[in-house]
Amino acid sequence: MNTESVDRILIIDFGSQFTQLIARRLRELNAYCEIFPYHKVTTELLQKMLPKAIIMSGGPASATQATAPRPPREIYDLGVPVLAICYGQQIMTVDLGGEVQSGAAESGARTSEFGRAFVDQQQPLDLLTGWFTGGQEQVWMSHGDHVSKLPQNFNVYSYSANAPFAVIADPARKFYGVQFHPEVHHTPKGNKLYENFLKIANIEQNWTMTAYRQQAIQQIREQVGQKRVICGLSGGIDSAVVAVLAHHAVGDQLTCIFVDHGLLRQGEAEEVVSVFQEHLKLPLVFAEEPHLFLNSLEGESDPETKRKIIGKRFIEVFQKYASNIEQVAFLAQGTLYPDVIESVSATGGPSETIKSHHNVGGLPDELGLELVEPLRELFKDEVRALGRELGLPEQLIRRHPFPGPGLAIRCPGAFSRSKLDILRRADAIYIDQIKRHGLYDEIWQAFVAILPVRTVGVMGDGRTYDYACVLRAVTSVDGMTADYYPFSHDFLSETATRIINEVSGINRVTYDITSKPPGTIEWE
Predict the structure, then answer these.
(1) Between the CA atoms of 366, 370, 374 and 378, what dihedral angle is there, to the nearest 10 degrees?
(2) Strand partners, 259
(3) Counting beta carbons within 10 angstroms of the beta carbon of residue 186, is it exposed (0 to 12), middle (13 to 18) or buried (19 or more)?
(4) In the 8-state DSSP scheme, what is residue 277?
């Protein structure tokens, strides 16, 4: 995406679980930023990006080790403000001549802090304008090591019980280091700190969806030229926004392909065709291919294999239908920023795959299509904002996310058509319950997963031996972190009763109260 018209902030990622939240806070302040793993921050990247400010994330490594991951030394010579967080503060300290003490120091002094902590002001600092108006400030700490000796020209501006250098700075060079995490919810004035940093860096806060829409449409036109594009529709907001953007950009050069892989929710195929053909007036090919996918999945239990099977079949389907369209050179798809981030290792080695994202990393060479991915820099809530900017119907914008592999990954264990049918009916009842109770818009995502176990039950005077299912509902902003939705016991009881009474094959209902992390939103 062409971002030359906005000031850019570079976020250097050292593997922190909170790095994505830094980006979210900046985007909420209408500031443009990009995340790169530290080993990807090269001279060429810096020259191309020309960041107006740099933020260094936390991370699991120790700055006391000789092999500690480091940013390139030249970032300190660019003349731009630097905000270094947690591990970032520690590695900046070492890079500039200070010292960091390990949490396992021989002195036995306690240096670690995890969770809620409180910092005091030592002296005023422009980064902390608006802080300490009522005394101490609450912050969120997550560190074992701590700074023990400051680099030259640095001073201490805030401290906590176990972090004597909680905030350090060299204001002349605009280098700032904080031991806590201002990006998390449990640092209540964290956003104010980021606001102050944007002012220090003189960042123009003009990152808006109107500007993004105009840039995206222009970028698609430049990339595609006079050739044709196909867009894979899933029925969700991501592919819908991509399709409408592409249609605005190249008009009739676009053909949308909607694949019914047999793994959609109840009534979903009919709804998608209606929205895109009748409301949005987009050129649509309806590919009804359920048997191809279901036959390939029958009996498969490994979640990664399921995803790969579905991804492979999708490619085959696109090859089949794209071959009927002349001069197709591009495939437009809804890859989002979290997809890209989760598919890249911050450590430089083989990435520890949480789950495969079938739409990240390009297409096999034999498909012969170049990717058009206008949403690669957006989080989910930003995609919804862009959808409104494009005039998409509200029911589509508000629709809960739905995974590309569909209901297949909500059938843990061996996949079968019979389990899929049971799951589809239970899921429809659950969503109906949520809508009846007016809760749909309060929830980020909700679904049923059918478990790979049968349990004994009693219905009437007879014994049953049927499947157990689990209800999942989470609240989130961007899908990177999530917490379970606190349904009332009455709601859960009523919903469980409906599912057991109305769905043959389920005799036990449970509710998943796991957050992300440590869990993921989906079960597979």
Answers:
(1) 40
(2) 287
(3) middle
(4) I
- Among the listed residues 113, 183, 342, 382, the single catalytic one is 183
SS (H, E, C) 363-399: CCHHHCCEEECCCCCCCHHHHHHHHHHCCCCHHHHCC
Backbone angles phi, psi at 397, to 5 degrees: -65, -40
Any idea which residue has 């929830």 for tokens? 443
Q: How far apart are CA 344 and CA 352, in angstroms?
A: 9
Rounded Cα distance between 176 and 178, Å, is 7
Q: What is the DSSP letter of 265?
A: P
Burial pattern 279-315, b for ≥16 Cβ within 10 A else e, equals ebebbbebbebeebbbebbeebeebeebbebbbebbb
Annotation marks residue 268 as catalytic: no
Q: Does residue 181 have an active-site annotation? A: yes
Contact 38, 346 (CB under 8 A): yes
Please confirm, yes or no, whether 357 is among the known catalytic residues: no
Concatenate the DSSP letters of all residues of 155-177 into one string: EEEEEESS-TTSEEEETTTTEEE
Tens digits of residue pLDDT in 477-507: 767 678 999 999 999 999 999 999 999 999 9
pLDDT tens digits along 21-76: 898 899 889 998 988 999 999 999 999 999 999 999 998 888 888 889 999 999 99
Catalytic pick from 86, 231, 256, 469? 86
Beta bridge partners of 463: 458
Q: Looking at 181, 261, 357, 358, which residue is catalytic?
A: 181
